[in-house]
Amino acid sequence: MQDSQGRENGRQDAKHQRGTKNHSPHFYSFFRLQLPTNLFYLLLIFCLGLCLSACGNPSPTQSKTDNSSPKEDDTKLTFFGVASEQFDEVGRPIWKVKAKEAKYTTDKQIGQAQSPEGELYQDGKVVYQIKAEKADIKQDGKQLFLQGKIVATDPRNGIVLKGNELEWRPQEDLLIVRNQLNGSHKQLQAVAQEAKVKTREQRIEFSQGVVAKSADPQLQMRTEHLMWHIKEEKLFSDRPIQIERYKDNKITGRGNGNAAEINLKTQIATLKPQAKLELIDPPVQITSNSITWNINKENITTNSPIRVFKAAENVTVTANRGKMKIPENTVYLTGNVNAVGQRRQSLKSNQLTWYLDKKLLEAQGNVVYRQIEPKLTFQGETAVGNLETENIVVKGGNSGRRVVTEIIPQEGR
Length: 413
Hints:
- The protein is mainly beta.
- It is built from 3 helices and 31 strands.
- The N and C termini lie far apart (174 Å).
């Protein structure tokens, strides 16, 4: 017992000699409480568990916030130096578009592109070059759609189409430019709501509020539907159309019809049906079911029933067909001709030449002149005179009795 106690005392003495070393359990200060180390770790684990439980079961308000849809900007990815290409089944390109910068929205499949430009292809050849300041691009492999300030140029003929929307359907050989369309070419300028382009045929179909101007001849056309056959240099309309003719920037004539064909190369316009042509100089109106207006040669012809009206003398002439030479101020009428004046005086014949500036009529063949007051009727082979003033000379012809009758109106009439 004493030996055991002595050994213990010796160890205590040795400890004091080397310095104190505490082997009792460690304690940490926690809200002025002293806890053993093992108990501290248990409390720490318990607190972490509570935190994890709180995260796994958020409050209703927090859950509503977390489950809300992300903003559209959060779903956009921005790329720089973007290029989009599409090819047909044999590997030929059908479009190539590149942009300096583009934002791609995966859910909407729309790329918001900055300064996009590119080419549209048909049969492996470039048919239109496109560019814009910015545009929203949508593509599904079969068609390309752009929204923005679009400029499309045909490198084959120099046609430029501008609008706010462009749609390219290569399988249909169809390019559509719409929304405030403006088309320009050395031969034609046009504004409309929409243009449909057949690239292989090089044909453009303008629709809705079309106003087109040609440079040579100088024409302005207004209609709801106008087709331009570029190679043939022809314009067609199957809707009511108005054509205004200008010379030295002054209007010289105005034509209307329910349809029209205009050959820009030959400068011949055909109006039909229910066609009407008004000339400024001389001031006459011509109506027919079909009118051919040779703008270059300045003549008008029709093989359909025709009506010519001159308001200055209030004289109307109808016939089966007719022709007018504008520079000569002369109208030639054939077949069942009937000229009627203001007081219902009339001159019928097989043929009639009307000199507008001279106010003179020359009738040939089966001539019949009728006057209401005084009531008179004369027949002959020819007649010459002024229908407005009722000064007419009727001749009987070369065979049989030759009768020359002169009719002079009463004074004071």
